[in-house]
Amino acid sequence: MKGKQVLITGGTGGLGSGVTPAVLAQGAEVTISYRNPKEVERLKNTFLPTDFERLHFIPANLEEEASVENLIHRIGRVDVLIHLVGGFSMGKTHEYSFSDWKREFDINLNTTFLTCKYSLKSMLEHGYGRIVTVGSKAALEPSGQLAAYSAAKAGVVALTKAIADETKGTNITANVVLPAVIDTPTNREAMGTENADKWVKPESLAQLICFLASEVARDIRGAAIPIYGNI
């Protein structure tokens, strides 16, 4: 990825803390979108001063189309999109509110659609692109109390595969990774640490994402790759 323009959405989150250093280590120019300036300041403390020559931050609300369009315009060219934005909430279907249902689709599926839409336009203009999205084990193996999350992530898988089919015959690929529980501070706080040693490490997931985002992965398109840790 040396010299490539890489957009990482959700780069200020727990998974982003593993993915961003791995992408920078490949020599890429990295832009991270953000909503909370405090998260940017926290993240900046984890990088070396030399990293900031290739690291840029742009505020954006990925749930609003105009904001996403402006983000891509400001970057100028997107060679690689790594879309990490997501979130989940739990609840039994008969008790789950419609507003929470819509929220799951907004943060997981709609942000994926908008960032893919405008990044893909840029990629098609200059004839190169790598799109990597993040689904979930729950997309393939839904479980109780995760209906909304599972359905939204299944949509991410379907969207990514559709893009891969649309871009056949080009030097643009789209693939999705399917992690089980990721070992992030947020998940440890929400779920405890009893089984954390079995969860997917952000660094492991980062290496898989970096491979899919690289030039050598040109023959992989439309893949949905499980990475379940030791669960």
Automatic annotation (TrEMBL):
PANTHER family in the record: DEHYDROGENASES, SHORT CHAIN (PTHR24321), ESTRADIOL 17-BETA-DEHYDROGENASE 8-RELATED (PTHR24321:SF8)
InterPro entries assigned to the protein according to its UniProt record, in alphabetical order: NAD(P)-bd_dom_sf, Sc_DH/Rdtase_CS, SDR_fam
Protein name: 3-oxoacyl-ACP reductase
Keywords for this protein: Oxidoreductase
Family from the record: Belongs to the short-chain dehydrogenases/reductases (SDR) family.
NCBIfam families xrefs: PRK05653.2-1
Organism in which the protein naturally occurs: Nostoc minutum NIES-26
Gene Ontology terms for molecular function: oxidoreductase activity
